[in-house]
Amino acid sequence: MIQLKPNDLPVGYPLPWSLLDGEGNLVLGSGNVIPDERDLALVFRHGVVCREDGHDDADDELRPATGPLGLQVGTLLHIKLDGEAARPAASRLIGFIEQGLFVTWPQLGGRDLPLKAGDAVLLRGFSGQAIHSFTSTITAVCRSPFRYLVLSAPVQQHATPVRKAARVPTRLAAYLTEPGDDDGTDTGAARLALLSDLSTGGALVQTTAPAPAPGSRLRLRFKLRTASLDSEVTLDGWVRVAAPGAASDDADFPAFGVAFDVLAERELTLLQCYIYEQLLSSTRMPLQPAAVAAV
Fold first, then answer.
1. Do 134 and 157 meet the contact criterion of CB atoms below 8 Å apart?
2. tRNA-binding among the record's keywords (predicted)?
């Protein structure tokens, strides 16, 4: 058996292997989902967690299945009625067949999106390499053993490539402090800052005070809203000179770049989810020829 660590397990996605205790007894079967970090901690609470020592080819077969457009089971989807300007609701791909998709019931702000069979919906999802936009029709509304939708095969497909270190424009308020030595405390008074650009590697920061010297250390505390939930994030980094641009040329609010330290698993996951959600929201499908002719 191979002993596992918490970072070895996917959170929010189907397990690629069955989890065993130190004696080889089943703890949780493959394909089940560990919903969040607290559930993950619970799994490891009372002893070691292992998986069987299988061949790599067998592991490949147990990885999350890939469906249409390269989207994996568990992929976050943004869904809204086709043609509506409202904010999209959040859903996840839970399965697929040759001519259709199975998705969880879309929710917006904790409420189910009112949908019915026959509705045309616009969906966006991230495959790891591109944002895929497509339309489908709800072919069935299912309520047992839980609420989910069956969708027709994707049509009017469009892919927008995403570079590896994707950046998104933001307007996030953050508190900027100087990190302490080793005890986790901050030194000096917190200053309000604005993050106008964000990636998993760093951010563009504006403040009312003079910009810190390049190479100096700082800490940023801010909240990210992902899947309608607010999570506080604390990131340490070092100051870099901002690239020339509109924000960095603002004399009243100096701008500077921040390069983040290596991110912990929680912070990395939250940042990735936030960035992908922003990319999903901002991606637009090009007008189809028929739509152009109708304008």
1. yes
2. no
Domain range 168-281, its CATH number among 2.40.10.220, 2.40.50.100, 1.20.1250.20, 2.60.40.10: 2.40.10.220
Instruction: Report d(CA 52, CA 58) in Å as an integer.
Output: 11
10-residue mean pLDDT series, the chain (295 residues): 85 79 81 79 86 56 60 84 84 84 88 92 82 91 88 87 74 86 64 88 87 89 81 91 57 85 83 82 56 38
20, with CB counted inside 10 A (0-12, 13-18, 19+), is buried
| Exposure of 101 in the CB half-sphere (CA atoms within 13 A) | 32
Measured distance CA(129)–CA(166) in Å, rounded:
11
> Whole-angstrom distance between the N-terminal and C-terminal Cα of the chain?
63
The CATH T-level fold of domain 68-161 is Pnp Oxidase; Chain A (2.30.110)
The residue among 205, 230, 208 whose CA lies nearest residue 219 is 205
